[in-house]
């Protein structure tokens, strides 16, 4: 079964541990051991998360002597941002309508108060 890149990215981002790993890698590359430190889980579990992130293209494995540091590859996040951007106009229209409704309510209340 093939998965499109956007679906793979969303699937990878669905897990809070993987999002925390990405946040750590945004600060700079790190080894598996360094990435595992803040979590209460074994290295094989962290490795499984890393494989999901690598499959989604969100991280890449480098090579430095005997170390295999991972680093963030943010291009798939740009695709997510572009997808979400399509809905910005929808949200803004809803906020504008809500703002107009609240303004109408305030005006109505002020009118009622002045008649009392």
Would you write up a description of this structure?
This protein has 116 residues and is mainly alpha-helical. It is built from 6 helices and 2 strands; from the N terminus they run ααααββαα. It has helices spanning 5-13, 16-25, 32-36, 43-55, 75-85, 88-115; strands at residues 59-61, 70-72. It has a two-stranded antiparallel ribbon with strand order 1-2. Helix 1 (5-13) packs antiparallel against helix 4. It is elongated. It starts with a helix and ends with a helix.
Helical percentage: 55-70%
Largest sheet: 2 strands, antiparallel
Shape: elongated
Number of helices: 6
Radius of gyration of CA atoms, rounded to a whole number = 23 Å
Low-pLDDT stretches are: none
Helix/strand class = mainly alpha
The ordered H/E elements are: HHHHEEHH
Strand content: 5-15%
- What is the oligomeric state here? single chain
**Number of strand elements:** 2
Strand order of the largest sheet: 1-2
Mean pLDDT: 92
Q: How far do the termini sit from each other?
A: 69 Å
Write the layout of secondary structure elements.
Layout: H1 5-13, H2 16-25, H3 32-36, H4 43-55, E1 59-61, E2 70-72, H5 75-85, H6 88-115
Antiparallel strand pairs: 1-2
Helix pairs in contact: 1-4, 1-5
List the keywords.
116 residues, mainly alpha, two-stranded antiparallel ribbon, 6 helices, 2 strands
Short note summarizing the structure:
With 116 residues, the protein is mainly alpha-helical.
């Amino acid at each position: 079964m093939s998965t499109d890149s956007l679906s793979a990215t969303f699937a990878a981002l669905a897990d809070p541990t993987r999002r925390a790993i990405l946040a750590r890698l945004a600060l700079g590359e790190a080894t598996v051991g360094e990435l595992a430190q803040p979590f209460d889980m074994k290295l094989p579990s962290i490795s499984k998360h890393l494989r999901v992130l690598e499959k989604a293209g969100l991280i890449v494995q480098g090579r430095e002597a005997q170390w295999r540091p991972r680093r963030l590859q943010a291009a798939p996040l740009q695709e997510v941002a572009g997808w979400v951007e399509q809905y910005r106009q929808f949200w803004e229209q809803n906020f504008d309508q809500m703002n107009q409704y609240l303004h109408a309510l305030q005006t109505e209340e002020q009118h009622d108060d002045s008649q009392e």
